[in-house]
Design brief:
The protein is an all-alpha fold. The chain is about 90% helix and about 0% strand. It contains two helices and no strands. The protein has helices at about 1-30, 30-55. Helix 1 (about 1-30) packs antiparallel against helix 2. The protein is elongated, with a radius of gyration of 14 Å. The relative contact order is 0.12.
Length: about 55
Amino acid sequence: MDNFIYSDFLYYLFGIVVLVVVFLLMKKVASCLIKSIVMLVIMAILGAVYYIYFLS
């Protein structure tokens, strides 16, 4: 049970770090196309992390 809580905490910590990085990148990036690409990449990474840690 402790391992699940620890991995859950790491998952949420990872999500918060990704959101902060996305926010900082969005402030620096002006082009809509680059924003879309960055968001798609981050959604793919978060989807992969969710699939690997919670569905497998």
